[in-house]
TrEMBL record:
Membrane spanning residue stretches: none
Classification of source organism: Eukaryota, Fungi, Dikarya, Ascomycota, Pezizomycotina
Organism, scientific name: Helicocarpus griseus UAMH5409
Keywords in alphabetical order: DNA-binding, Nucleus, Transcription, Transcription regulation
Keyword Ribosomal protein attached: no
PANTHER family: FINGER DOMAIN PROTEIN, PUTATIVE (AFU_ORTHOLOGUE AFUA_1G01850)-RELATED, TRANSCRIPTIONAL ACTIVATOR PROTEIN UGA3
Domain (Zn(2)-C6 fungal-type) ranges: 12-42
Name listed for the protein in its UniProt record: Zn(2)-C6 fungal-type domain-containing protein
């Protein structure tokens, strides 16, 4: 009866459980193992329980649903064959099942396909896509161009890394949803690669450029009732592409810029904007347009855009003393550049009228008292800005990331643009010769400030020095100054690879040779008078073309 009262063992030693006999669970050796001389050990056995898979509810569901199939994960090893997932037997996606099709582009009457689009097809052996590429619908060549745009082209267009990030965060998501902007960005990247001397198919470049123009033309033929930021971005991208293309499209940049002005002006006509009310994308596009339009006023005798009302509208949105990180100068210089352009046009008109009455007048003379008074007022205002100690102001997200090197370079760049304004007033309005001490003082200041700046392998103020260098080069007649400008332009071209840097240097060499050949040491012939014969561009960001 004693044996029958003993409870059944559930945690006996391994030997007793294996032989299915009772164990008294004595430690460290039970009586049965001691009697037979076997090794006695105890271990914890885990039991997962549950019914067999085929008898489970999940297995029963799978068995009754014919639409569910067993999809192997891999077939390279015996272990991997046993691994599987369950999916629908219809419409399964296979990485090998991606079919690439192309968008036809009509070029010279022939149908040329180049931009791939992908669609899915069903495959007999469905496979799971591991680590899918979000850009697998783009050809490898175009993925490479897109990567070049984000890493290199935007760096050469930005005075600071925050601006470069702004370009990428606004344009790339927008481009992935709008084909016309994507093609324009690819065209810009391809053009930049050519300027850098990197390998690039010219046929592909021409196709991209033609396609972007055709697609933009089609969109503009059917205008939308509201402003499409993607179309504005496409227009500005095409404008920049023409700027850095080394004069291959010498006049089309202004058409793109005026097109952007028309769209923005129409949009802002009945809307009150403030810096806080702007969306992130609108803020970048507005500043981008504003910097291009403002500095285009410095490129010679070019009339103000018919949509000039756009400029003060945008200017009022931003703080006047805040540095525009796209252009490198404060917004307060914008009205000064506009006033200089108007005075230059008035002064030239007066000179032309004088020649009509007296054809023997070959040298420009001092303009009338009204123009001189307004010019002197602008000169006093600029000198006041130069002599008043101040720290450049920036947007908060830029200011918090500036290094001491960047701050000093921005301060130097700001001063060079003030001297560019002075050179414009001295030469284009007052008609002073290049040898004037006032002119040469500004030339020396520009060279000195830029020599103190740093040309870094990153987005930095050094990308925006082409306009000041060109302005100083047009008035430089001393050999030392010309050599300094040659060296600085060479550093810019090597570092950032913009084709318009090469164009600027070519024009300066031609201007210097012409002055030397004619013994024009004083530089009485103005650069903007010669510029009409050489339709080049000379700014990587701050648009300036030699326009006829």
């Amino acid at each position: 009866m004693e044996a029958s009262q003993k409870r059944r063992s559930r945690s006996g030693c391994t030997e007793c459980r294996t032989r299915h006999r009772k164990c008294d669970e004595a430690r460290s050796r039970c009586s049965s193992c001691a009697r037979t001389g076997n090794k006695c050990s105890y271990e914890v056995r885990l039991s997962w329980g549950g019914r067999p898979f085929q008898k489970s509810r999940f297995g029963d569901c799978l068995r009754k649903d014919p639409g569910l199939t067993r999809v192997p994960v891999a077939s390279s090893s015996a272990a991997s064959r046993r691994a599987f997932v369950y999916g629908s037997g219809t419409g399964a996606v296979s990485q090998q099942g991606l079919l690439q099709e192309t968008v036809p582009v009509h070029l010279d009457g022939k149908e040329t396909s180049f931009l791939p689009v992908t669609e899915f097809r069903t495959s007999g052996e469905n496979q799971i896509i591991r680590n899918p590429d979000p850009l697998n619908w783009l050809r490898p060549a175009y993925r490479s161009l897109l990567d070049h745009f984000t890493s290199s082209t935007t760096r050469a267009l930005s005075c600071h890394k925050v601006v470069q990030q702004d370009f990428c965060s606004v344009l790339i998501p927008m481009a992935l949803q709008t084909r016309h902007l994507l093609v324009a960005i690819l065209s810009l990247a391809a053009t930049h690669r050519v300027s850098l001397g990197l390998e690039q198919s010219w046929t592909e470049l021409e196709l991209l450029k033609t396609s972007s123009l055709n697609q933009l033309r089609t969109l503009l033929a059917h205008p939308k009732p509201h402003l499409d930021y993607a179309i504005v971005a496409t227009t500005l991208t095409l404008c920049i592409t023409d700027v850095v293309s080394h004069g291959r499209s010498p006049h089309s940049w202004r058409l793109h810029l005026q097109g952007a002005a028309a769209m923005i002006s129409e949009h802002m006509k009945n809307i009150d904007y403030s810096a806080d009310s702007l969306s992130f994308a609108a803020s970048l596009l507005w500043r981008w347009y504003f910097s291009l339009e403002t500095v285009s006023l410095l490129c010679g005798n070019i009339a103000v855009s018919p949509k000039a009302a756009t400029r003060p509208q945008i200017r009022d949105i931003f703080e006047p003393d805040e540095i525009d990180e796209l252009a490198g100068f404060p917004f307060s210089l914008a009205p000064i550049f506009s006033a200089i352009s108007r005075l230059a046009v008035e002064s030239d008109c007066e000179q032309e009228q004088s020649r009509i009455y007296d054809p023997h007048i070959f040298q420009d003379k001092l303009p009338n008292n009204s123009i001189v008074a307004r010019c002197n007022q602008l000169i006093s205002e600029i000198h006041s800005k130069l002599t008043t100690p101040h720290q450049p102001r920036f947007r908060p997200d830029v200011d918090s990331t500036l290094t001491s090197v960047h701050r000093s370079d921005f301060a130097a760049l700001e001063q060079t643009y003030h001297h560019v304004a002075l050179l414009q007033l001295y030469r284009r309005v007052l008609n002073l010769p290049s040898s004037s001490p006032l002119v040469q003082t500004s030339v020396a200041q520009i060279i000195q400030r830029i020599l103190s700046m740093h040309f870094l392998d990153e987005a930095c103020p050094g990308v925006a020095v082409l306009q000041p260098l060109f302005s100083a080069g047009c008035e430089a007649y001393q050999i030392e100054d010309r050599e300094s400008i040659r060296g600085l332009l060479g550093r810019m071209e090597t570092r950032y690879g913009m084709g318009n840097v090469r164009s600027a240097r070519a024009f300066l060499e031609e201007l210097w040779s012409m002055r030397d050949a004619n013994s024009d040491e004083e530089g009485t012939v103005r650069w903007d008078k010669v510029m009409g014969k050489c339709p080049f561009c000379f700014s990587p960001l701050d648009l300036s073309f030699f326009e006829s």
